[in-house]
Write a structure and sequence with these properties.
By secondary structure, the protein is α/β, with parallel strands linked by helices. It is 28% helix and 29% strand. The chain has 9 helices and 18 strands.
Length: 378
């Protein structure tokens, strides 16, 4: 029977990051990554917008971004663009935006707080009459998610990580730990530690050991669109209604998440969604988009944590001490993958968080039904 020190279910950006940092921290560690979709056709990573920012309210998320953005921007050939982020709010959102701004500044984020006149002066194409303030981060940006995933995978494999095209179908476990993984092919693999990095499928993987996980797949659309009208260079723009877009080549990439979308593994594309929902929001905020045209629409899944929207990073103490979850990022997975991967590797190698204390993002809050959520724009 094959035996590994660590078996990881899920080999996209999160699982590959865990694998890479395990080998960096413990080179002798044997690691297997189980991934059924080895071309990543349905992986959330390849369907993501590629945004990476520090504009959070929870100190843990800011700390993860501080590490991850430095990591991502140093990776060659991932198309890193330091275009910044802009969060915009109406009067009702000013208090939360200001409080978050203070927290961000305390944690080393280079961010400006702009009132309405400053917003209008900085971004003259923007309709700002119904806005009160904005937070503009200067060092944030975006990259190509596919290139980042492939780089992480290549690096992990170069250090000796085995990638197996298969699917975890079950576990052999007792009340203390998981012993073996049973794969769809019939292969059984023993391991000392197991990691659930299955993204939108992580709830199903946890259910195999009876571990409740409030993570559901949430379909969202990404659109590429262009306008013939001139607009000044823009950062990645987000608002409270979940409109979010950024420059991409000669046009823009973005969308507007429907938080009420029925949960489920639905990859269908509604080609009317842009015209009915996204275009009116774009044209309202930037009148130059009145003439925009959508050139392409695709769908992807958020691994939505229904408790609080924040990730679950840790094990299930006293039930499955050697079974670790790194999932539920609710749209922030790619940008936090390097820090989250390092965190899980530290828990396995050192049995503690060594660089960033992520205890508040552990499973204990899930078991206790105690949300720890972001404030303001998510």
């Amino acid at each position: 029977m094959p035996h590994y020190d660590v078996l990881i279910a899920g080999g996209a950006v999160m699982g590959s990051s865990v694998a890479l940092f395990l080998k960096r921290l413990a080179p002798a560690c044997t690691v297997a990554v189980i991934e059924p979709d080895d071309v990543y056709e349905f992986a959330s990573t390849l369907r993501a917008s590629g945004g990476a920012r520090r504009l959070f309210s929870c100190p843990e998320n800011i700390a993860m971004s501080n590490f991850s953005l430095a990591f991502i921007s140093a990776v060659p050939d991932v198309g890193w663009k330091k275009g910044g982020y802009l969060f915009i709010v109406p009067p009702t959102g000013v208090d939360a935006l200001t409080a978050n701004y203070e927290t961000q500044r305390q944690h080393g984020v280079r961010v400006e707080l702009l009132d309405r006149p400053a917003l209008q002066a900085r971004f003259p194409s923007m309709h700002a009459a119904d806005l009160a303030a904005g937070a503009h981060s200067l060092d944030d940006g975006w990259c190509d998610p596919h290139s980042l995933l492939q780089w992480l995978r290549r690096q992990a494999r170069s250090l000796g990580v085995d990638y197996l095209r298969d699917k975890v179908a079950g576990f052999e476990h007792d009340n203390a730990c998981v012993r073996k993984a049973r794969l769809a092919s019939g292969t059984v693999i023993a391991a000392d530690h197991f990691v659930n990095a299955a993204g939108a499928w992580s709830k199903e993987v946890c259910a195999m050991i009876g571990m409740p996980l409030p993570i559901e797949p949430l379909r969202r659309f990404e659109h590429y669109f262009e306008t013939p009208n001139s607009i000044e260079p823009l950062p990645y723009v987000k608002d409270l209604a979940r409109l979010a877009f950024r420059p991409e080549g000669g046009g823009y990439s973005g969308g507007l998440v429907n938080s009420d979308e029925p949960r489920g593994f639905n990859f269908g594309v509604d080609h009317q969604y842009f015209e009915n929902v996204v275009w009116p929001a774009l044209a309202h905020r930037f009148p130059a988009f009145e003439a925009c045209r959508c050139r392409r629409t695709w769908s992807g899944l958020y691994e939505q944590n229904e408790l609080d929207g924040n990730p679950v990073i840790g094990n299930w103490p006293r039930h499955a001490d050697n079974f670790f979850v790194v999932s539920g990022f609710s749209g922030h997975g790619m940008m936090h993958a390097p820090a989250a991967g390092r965190a899980i590797a530290e828990l396995i190698v050192y049995r503690r968080f060594d660089t960033i204390d992520l205890a508040r993002l552990g499973y204990a809050r899930i078991a206790a039904n105690q949300p720890y959520a972001e404030r303001g724009i998510v």
